[in-house]
Hints:
Helix content: 25-40%
Radius of gyration: 19 Å
CATH class: Alpha Beta
Number of domains: 1
Bound molecules: zinc ion
Amino acid sequence: MITNKEEYKMDNNNVAYKTKSALNLGGEQTNRLMLVLRTPPCEYNQCTMCGFDNNAGKKVKLWNIKRQYQNGVSEEDFSDIRRIDFPTAGSFYNDRELSPESRNYLFSEVSKLPVDSVMVETRVDYLTEEKVRESKRYLRDDQSIELAIGLESSDDDIRNKVLRKGLSKKSFERFADICKNTDSPLLAYILIKSPTLSEAEAVQDAVQTADYVYKIANERGIKARVAFKPMFIPEGTELEGQYLSGEYKLPKLWTTIETVKRTSQLASYQPDSIFVGMFDEDLSGDRFSSNCGGCNSEVVEALKKFNGTQELFELEKLSCECKTEWELEVIGELQ
Ligand SMILES: [Zn+2]
């Protein structure tokens, strides 16, 4: 994996954190280049598990965004990259966090790249059809914008009381309507193991959430993908407090693997639509979901590979003593 971690850590408004990883787009295995843009802090900033503020900048101007982009793509070989992602510290479509000029600059630059699509993430409050249409005017006709949203859980209590997302189902469905009306695919981020959930409950919550996303997308005839995020502990969050006091325990990676398997068996499932975030935004230090020392790196690599191939056998062939322990604890509860 290519990264520019050291450069990025210098808190420089001209450097976006960059990483490249496998993903599957429309059944084809490719790679994405992700540039985590340094933008001002998220205006909402109430989610109990979010650490993106740690990467926020102050007084980020259009020329900073230009430098971030140019530093990110220069000398990059795009021969095996068909997708570029622009996460920010908050919402891509909040004009006060990222100006319309900055957005338009990014899309006009992307139109020169040999990529098929670009991913941007936003709270629904800032998203309008008009903004998406304006963005699309800067792209080529054969390029699309995947609109991403942090849904996290379809359980209202988990989403709005435990995580404090401030997002109703009605608003999520409005987001899906905007995707439909602007011909944009939808990407929903789903957390694995919100606070208060056991490992078994975490599987059920994430699979139910994926099912909800697919159903909403299928009703509207739009494409949707789900990006599972096994929980990690960013600094300075409420979640960090719960983790340090021992109240919260991170999920095993087996929980994510079980979630992926069950999601792919849903009646509502759309082909080749599962992604597992493997902590490559570099927000977590070393406090992220893991298994035992014996199998961890193999399991992480298998999940990264799965993101490209979408082949379940990559995950089913994994075994370890710690998997047996996990099964004893979790499978009975799962039925
Ligand atoms: Zn193990």
